[in-house]
Amino acid sequence: MKHICYDYGMKRQPIPRKELKELVLHDGIPRTTFSFYRYVRIVNPKAMRDELFMKFSELGCLGRIYIASEGINAQMNVPTENFENFDVYLQSKEEFNGIPYKIAVEETDAVSFFKLTIKVKQKIVADGLDDSTFDVTKTGEYLTAKEMNEYVDDPEAIIFDMRNAYEGEVGHFERAIVPDVDTFREELKIAPEMLKEHKDKKIAIYCTGGIRCEKASAWLTHKGFANVKHLKGGIIDYKRQVEEGGLPNKFKGKNFVFDERMGERISDEIISYCHLCAKEKCDTHIHCKNQACHVLFLCCDACKAKKRGYCSYGCLIFDKLPEKIKKLLTRNNHKKKLEQFKKHRLKSIKR
What percent of the chain has pLDDT over 70? Predict the structure, then answer.
């Protein structure tokens, strides 16, 4: 069995992305995609990074993993035949013993990751908070899928999405408040203000796999919200609990994921629209083929064929220019594209 592993965090000679994708797509290895995190004291993050990289490389693991003194945050895939060995190794580490995994809702033809990247960070999630100013361990209580459904059915309870706008646009819980933000850092700044009129109500927050809500619930508690709870295991584990327990599915649409798949279907509903024609229902994200733009946008099949994978005819034409001219015209182009598509966000969500 041949495994493809590459880690930018280890500063090794890069393998071209196109070559990596071809190697992994055709290696014929069944893989299991999953994520996990834990806030835990790691004394030497660099040494931990090096050890994990060596062991995960041996097991053929691919993915994106962040290590910090405050813990670990991982999204990855493992050759299915090696998953048990992976689990035995990780659980043998004192810092990670008992750590739960969120197994992907679905494995598609699109492989989730093509390389192994393990990086040492200041924080495992970029939140912009000064952890010394509040008690980060004073988090809200967990909600099971059944309890989350009860909150959704309770008109007096508040449901708040702790993810980015492009995530909430393609999928969210019924009645959820979905902030129009681009980063978690930005959302933490505005969440207390958005929720201040509901300070005395029951509040349920949720995110992809639970990690953002751990910090957000502690932050909101610090800001005076006395009854904040968060969905255990996030949307990923909610789907599992719903299926195993035969519960009603209160989540509409797709769950955006931060890997090559860019989404897992939680319900059959498509709640968003193509950003180009604004007519066809669509929840498929693509990146503009013009690397100077590379904006993430929703695109239906017809518009993708019409514009050949570009976000506009302007980008299509731009990409055909000589490299020297493209470099001269690139400055600020990406920022303009982000603003262009921001106006389309949340258009299908009843606020």
Answer: 86
Nearest to 188 by CA among 151, 208, 160: 160
Residue 66's Cα: distance from chain center in Å?
A: 13
Single out the catalytic residue among 5, 61, 207, 274: 207
Q: Which residues of 28-57 are buried (b: 16+ CB within 10 A; e: fewer)?
A: ebebbbbbbbbbbebeebeebbbebbeebb
CATH topology of domain 8-120: Alpha-Beta Plaits (3.30.70)
Q: How far apart are CA 332 and CA 311, in angstroms?
A: 16
What is the mean predicted confidence (pLDDT) over 96-125?
89
Domain 131-253 has CATH 3.30.70.2750: no
In this chain, the answer to whether the domains covering 8-120 and 131-253 adopt an identical fold is no
Q: What is the pLDDT of residue 17?
A: 63
Of the candidates 229, 128, 171, 187, which has an alpha carbon nearest to the alpha carbon of residue 346? 171
User: Could you confirm whether 207 is annotated as catalytic?
Assistant: yes
The answer, yes or no, to whether residue 20 has pLDDT greater than 70, is: no
**pTM of the full structure:** 0.84
Domain ranges of the chain: 8-120, 131-253, 285-342
